[in-house]
Design brief:
About 75% of the residues lie in helices and about 0% in strands. The protein is mainly alpha-helical and about 260 residues long. It has twelve helices and two strands; from the N terminus they run αββααααααααααα.
Length: about 260
């Protein structure tokens, strides 16, 4: 029997990719796992029960993160779609597109430090609304860049066709542009959701510890050396991205292909 190297390498790569997730799941169920024990002394739902009952703040952080990420993704996706049209048709399109990359030149912590004075003056410092606005300032330029490829010559010709048939701008968006861009809108929503979901630097500076999203909680548990709750928080942290990946693969990507 000949030994096939390719399936072995692929299996090894799959195991290496899945191992961190499996380890996090095991650690979230473990207790009293001390060196040099190979296996934890306790495996069960004790940590999860504590989160769903006594440790309500972690559950609240999860719901707060979902609310913030959905708000940022929705606002960034739709505003980015409509405003990207104005940017593409503007005479200084290349300059405006270049300026869209500005938030990504700086590190998130440095970018948040530059914005902190203005947020303090506006009364948004340490509030969930301030975190939403700060994350929107990062997600919105991404949406502008993402939708830049949508406004090509084909789209312009369709807009002109609708105009010649007597349709106004509202009819153009409602009947032509939005149905055409449905797949891109969903993908952009997923991407901006993930940008907000995993954001730590902006949230830690603008939120000043008062807005404790799930990402903030993960770092707090790690700093406290509470690895079991930290692993549990990481499991909760990866659940929405996995769900979005499944939806994207099942209902968006397959239809685009």
């Amino acid at each position: 029997m000949r030994f096939s190297v390719k399936p072995f390498i692929l299996s090894l790569l799959v195991l290496l990719v899945l191992f961190p997730f499996a380890y996090l799941g095991l650690l979230s169920l473990a207790g009293d796992w001390r060196f040099p024990d190979v296996w934890p002394a306790y495996i069960g739902l004790r940590n999860w029960y504590a989160v769903l009952s006594a440790e309500t703040s972690l559950w609240q952080s999860f719901l707060l993160s979902v609310l913030i990420s959905v708000s940022v993704a929705t606002a960034a996706t739709f505003s980015g779609f409509f405003i990207s049209r104005l940017v593409y048709y503007h005479p200084k399109q290349h300059l405006l597109t270049l300026l869209s990359y500005f938030p990504y030149i700086l590190a998130p912590v440095v970018f948040a430090a530059c914005l902190s004075f203005f947020f303090l003056k506006l009364g948004l410092f340490g509030k969930s609304g301030g975190v939403v606005v700060a994350q929107f300032m990062v997600a919105f330029p991404y949406a502008l860049i993402f939708f830049g490829s949508f406004w090509g010559s084909k789209t312009q010709q369709l807009e002109k066709l609708v105009a010649t048939l007597g349709g106004n701008l509202w009819h153009t968006f409602q009947r032509v542009l939005l149905p055409m861009a449905r797949g891109m809108l969903l993908v952009c929503f997923f991407q901006t959701f993930l940008i907000s979901w995993f954001e730590y630097g902006l949230t830690s500076i603008i939120g000043v510890g008062k807005v404790q999203t799930l990402t903030i909680k993960v770092f707090l548990f790690i700093k406290e050396a509470n690895f079991y709750y930290g692993a549990l928080s990481c499991v909760l942290l990866i659940l929405p991205p996995v769900a979005l990946l499944y939806i994207n693969k099942r209902y968006v990507f397959n239809k685009l292909v």
